[in-house]
Design goal:
By secondary structure, the chain is mainly α. It folds into three domains: 191 residues, Alpha Horseshoe (Leucine-rich Repeat Variant); 249 residues; 141 residues. It contains 31 helices and two strands. A two-stranded antiparallel ribbon has the order 1-2. The protein is globular, with a radius of gyration of 27 Å.
Length: 609
């Protein structure tokens, strides 16, 4: 539910597939009724053809076939990456571009194991050579008088680089091996040469900046180079200070470019001289805040049918990246580590378990003045306003826009969670009280998982007195989600949330009995019926807190018939633990604690009542 720093690299939204043209032979293949194997495998053999047209046709065909799951599986078995990668250095530049585009498409699919497979096929040897060669040609041109078989104009070189950088970006997001090779091949200076908005197209600069942002995350070799190479920091700062272009698409690209560079500065923050850290962080937060408050309402109003403008897509991408950078700023302030990678977690318990396991391995960095500067930049206010704006327009948008908004809303919720956990309560409580009712009435079209919402609710319940905020209707809605969810992590977190809400209600001199009845019956039913011992243990932990309180009304325990359920659970707990132990992972300590405390709690409650 939330995101944490972890050693394993995790993919964000990757660059989209390349829009390579579909040739008529590809259409002919797709229109046949043959099996995927008979369609795709002959194409692999044509990659080695001596005929230039046939090699190019094969690359273009594969760029489409690799997006299809069944055909991709067949192509992987045919060693498609091993056959494609030599064409990254083909003597014909157009074939280099087509091969890079096909591999980029393959790297963009959201399928476990694909990036690891691509890395294992030694793709980086040819890809590194392609980047170095193409940048050298673009920057310095071909040596005068040198006889070469291939010629290429600037446009083809730019296209090759854009495909190659997006491929490298995708690979770096999902594979630490690729980042290690990136360091070993010393690719970073070549990437920096492409960050020239006055010389190169913004689309190429954007791909270079986003790649640089990814490879400087938890990568001390890259960070040292960025900080130490003469003129690099001042050049990156000049990119941050550039004014936005007049054209719509260029303005959107520049927003993404600036926030990506801001992310690079944040990644490198701990390596900067002490004297410039605060001013650098001020610059990062200023960019983030300015991107978060970009008004998309006029563009959303102008959306026709199922269309989505390129400018709108770019603004959403910039705002999602800005949320990530801001969440990282909050995280660094709270954990005292030098950073790491974002990794999706199934629940708050995953976060806690990962923190405990990795705490001893993380070096301590200097304290950063993050929280004070976040407040000064009003970044917390702007992300709150962004979230409320998204909720207000969500259900009226066409489908392609809703897909973008879903990703952006999840990013905003995760950022709000980090802000709620990090900032002093008096700074943001008015904002969060405004957001509170919206969390229980999210747009019907928001179909992302419930972890981001639960994460924020848990952060708020931990910090706020929610007894005056949470209504019976809202608690019932939360409980129904917990009962109906097939996600173990969702159910566990809801049991924790229900327990926290009950504890908050009990702190008042006159506890609200209907609210406690709802919470108690939900926890009781979970203990009696949930198939996961982890979820049962979380419910028991909440029961211990709730009913162990002296302020808990005595009649409540009897009305719920809780003790018979607890005795039944205690009788089977040890047997269930033996069966489920291997699958409990980081939750084993909580389950073992529940096992020890359950008999004691039963004895305590029996003697008390």
């Amino acid at each position: 539910m939330g995101k944490i720093r972890a050693k394993r690299r995790a993919a964000r939204s990757r660059p989209e597939p390349a829009g390579l043209p579909t040739t008529s032979p590809v259409k002919a293949i797709e229109e046949t009724s043959e099996s995927p194997e008979s369609r795709s495998l002959p194409i692999l053999h044509r990659l080695a053809s001596h005929d230039v047209t046939e090699r190019k046709w094969a690359c273009t065909s594969l760029s489409h076939l690799l997006l299809d799951c069944a055909q991709r599986t067949e192509l992987i078995q045919g060693r498609v990456v091993r056959r494609l990668t030599p064409l990254l250095l083909d003597e014909v530049m157009e074939i280099r571009e087509a091969a890079a585009g096909a591999l980029r498409n393959m790297s963009s699919v959201d399928e476990p194991g694909v990036l690891e497979y691509m890395a294992s096929e030694d793709i980086m040897t040819h890809l590194s050579a392609l980047v170095k060669d193409t940048v050298a040609r673009l920057v310095t041109g071909m040596e005068e008088g040198k006889k070469e078989k291939m010629t290429a104009d600037r446009g083809v070189l730019l296209s090759i680089l854009e495909e190659a950088l997006c491929l490298l970006w995708n690979m770096s997001e999902g594979s630490s091996v690729v980042v290690e090779v990136f360091n070993r091949e010393e690719l970073l200076p070549f990437i920096l040469q492409l960050l020239q908005p006055t010389t190169h197209p913004l689309s190429l600069c954007l791909a270079a900046a986003q790649l640089l942002h990814v490879v400087t995350e938890d990568n001390q070799d890259a960070i040292r180079l960025v900080v130490s190479l003469p003129g690099t920091l001042s050049h990156l700062e000049s990119v941050l200070d550039r004014t936005l272009p007049d054209d719509d698409c260029g303005r959107g690209q520049m927003l993404v470019l600036r926030v990506a560079i801001a992310g690079v500065f944040h990644n490198c923050l701990a390596a900067l001289p002490e004297a410039v850290i605060e001013s650098t962080l001020c610059g990062v937060l200023a960019v983030v805040a300015s991107v978060l408050c970009v008004d998309t309402a006029p563009l959303l109003t102008g959306c026709q049918g199922d269309s989505e403008t390129e400018e709108l897509r770019l603004i959403f991408s910039a705002q999602e990246l800005a949320c990530e950078v801001l969440a990282n700023v909050c995280y660094n302030e709270g954990d005292g580590s030098d950073g790491g990678e974002w990794a999706d977690c199934d629940s708050v318990e995953d976060v806690e378990g990962a923190d405990m396991m990795e705490a001893s391995q993380m070096p301590v960095s200097r304290d950063l003045p993050s929280l004070k500067l976040i407040v000064e930049a009003q970044a917390h206010t702007k992300v709150c306003n962004l979230f409320l704006h998204l909720c207000s327009v969500f259900d009226t948008c066409p489908e392609p826009v809703i897909q973008r908004l879903t990703s952006l809303m999840s990013a905003a919720l995760l950022t709000l969670q980090n802000l709620a956990s990090s900032l002093p309560t008096d700074v943001w409580q008015d904002h969060m009280r405004t957001i509170w009712p919206t969390l229980f009435n999210l747009p019907s079209a928001y179909n992302d998982n419930t972890f981001p919402v639960l994460g924020l609710l848990l952060a708020l319940v931990d910090k706020l007195d929610t007894s005056q905020l949470l209504t019976e209707e809202q608690l019932m809605k939360v409980c129904k989600v917990g009962v109906a969810s097939g996600e173990v992590g969702v159910r566990a977190d809801i049991m924790r949330l229900v327990g926290a809400a009950a504890s908050s209600a009990l702190r008042h001199t006159t506890p609200h009995l209907p609210m406690l009845q709802i919470a108690g019956s939900t926890l009781r039913d979970c203990v009696a019926k949930d198939p996961s011992l982890w979820v049962v243990s979380q419910a028991l932990d909440s029961i211990f807190d709730m009913f162990g309180s002296d302020s808990c009304p005595p009649p409540l325990l009897h009305s719920l018939s809780l003790l018979p359920v607890l005795r039944q659970s205690s009788a089977t707990f040890s047997a269930r633990l033996r069966v489920e132990r291997k699958g409990l992972g980081p939750h084993i300590s909580m389950v073992q604690s529940a096992k020890v405390n359950l008999p004691r709690f039963i004895s305590y409650m029996a003697s008390k009542h």
